[in-house]
UniProtKB/TrEMBL annotation:
Residues 3-120 form the Response regulatory domain. It is found in: Cytoplasm. It holds the Pfam family Response_reg. InterPro entries: CheY-like_superfamily, Homeodomain-like_sf, HptR, HTH_AraC, Sig_transdc_resp-reg_receiver. PROSITE patterns: HTH_ARAC_FAMILY_2, RESPONSE_REGULATORY. One of its GO terms (molecular function) is sequence-specific DNA binding. This is Stage 0 sporulation protein A homolog. The keyword Chloroplast does not apply.
Amino acid sequence: MFKVLIIDDEPTIRKGLINIINWKKFQCEICGEASDGVEGLEKIEAYKPDLVFADINMPEINGLEMIKSAKQIVPHSKFIILSGYREFSYMQEAIKIGAFDYILKPSSIEDICEVVKRAVIELKYQRDDQLEAKKLRKCFEESIPILKEKLLYDIIFQININEEEIKEGFELYGIEINEFVMIMIEIDGDSKKKEPYQRQLYQFGIVNTVEEMFAEEFKVEKIVLNNKQIAFIIGTHETVELLEEDVYKKVHSIQQLVESCFDFTVSIAISTKGKDVDELHDKMMECKNALAYRFYMGNSSIILYRDLSGFYKGQDNLAFDGIDKVLCNTIKTGNEEDVVHILGQINDKVIQTNLDPEYIKTFYWNLIYEINMIRISIKNLEVQDKDLSHDISSLYKLIDNATQVKELQDLLEDVAMSVVHRINRYNKKNINQILQKAMDYICENYTMSITLNELAEHTYVSTYYLSRMFKKELGKNFVEYLNEVRIDKAKELLKDNKYKTYEVAELVGIQDPHYFSKIFKKYVNMTPTEYKDSQL
């Protein structure tokens, strides 16, 4: 029902309007009456009427002045002036202040009802518009997380590079990107084997875990990239400094929590710090590149992009689309198995397409040329260089003289496998150099207290990366390797009768004799005293 307020200094007019008109017929009800403009404003403030009848000539405040003030309180209400003034200036002023209609006294009930009917029709349209606007606003507010994620997706993949649109979107969706790091979580293994519902459940679980873990100290924005990868922008509040170590600790906890709750493992990449929205794409590429090196780290890895400084990273020299670029990028990671797979895809694609032979030759030439540029860049990093089985000039002649696709494919495979093998060897050599440096440091300082943090600082990598390399390359963790070094040195010292057991413990960096005896027996299957006696 629409609420009606009648304001007139003549009681007979008020009573007449209240009693003569069938208000229910128009879906209206009288909410009150007032005898002057001041009281009228009070009632308008109190009742917020939809329809107001008002006289012009009233005590205290006239009807026109009252309507001006009332419009500030109920801007969407309909004001109908009921007046004996016939001067055009009054009617003109009434229109100017936004009155719905101007009815002259005396007036027939039919005329008044017709005005009420029109006013109610407008009120209904207005109400419906407001309900629709409210509904749309609710839908928009519910869609903000999706729209926000879509905007961020378009930014990180450089689909949207319009600065004004991005700024407008950030203000609209309440996004603020200052100092941040990006993390990317990838489900290990082939998620396509899982049912769609299960994949969605996994993603939901990962998102909830990350948001809950970072919620108190960080601002988090998520971007679902595909059914295996989810990116998160991790920022801090303005007064808090973003520390990569804090992010790493939470990421490690997230990985453990996910793997304990679900029947799958995840690998997680962490970018270096970014400063604003312009760096989102670069940080996303850092995460993607870091995940590519999972080939060396294995599944269930946490890979910090800054740890990859010793790995080979080629520069894009030509812009290939599709599978061409995929092959080149995969070669740069040194992943031989993936390169073989992509070469097979290229072969199938070329055979399936019925293209001009010259075009196919150009395709292979451009691709081999790009791979050769990768070869040249890795060559400059190696002490000794062995050229490809074919030099570039002879390759061009071989491509030009080729009469079958198989000849071109064989050349591509020869070149690609030669370069990827070289990069693989270079990366593994780098891993071995870091590990060897760590091992040398342990051998030189085993007599002192050595922590994994100290060792990581010495080798310029993260503690996680170093710990992972010990486990992957040596089959044991840092503590186990350190203990082995200390026990080997202890065995040598125990052969000398001048040292007591507790003295040997101190000489190999273990201050607690009981703990020394415990780990000695673990590794040698006898106590230090038993071992000493066995050497007599």
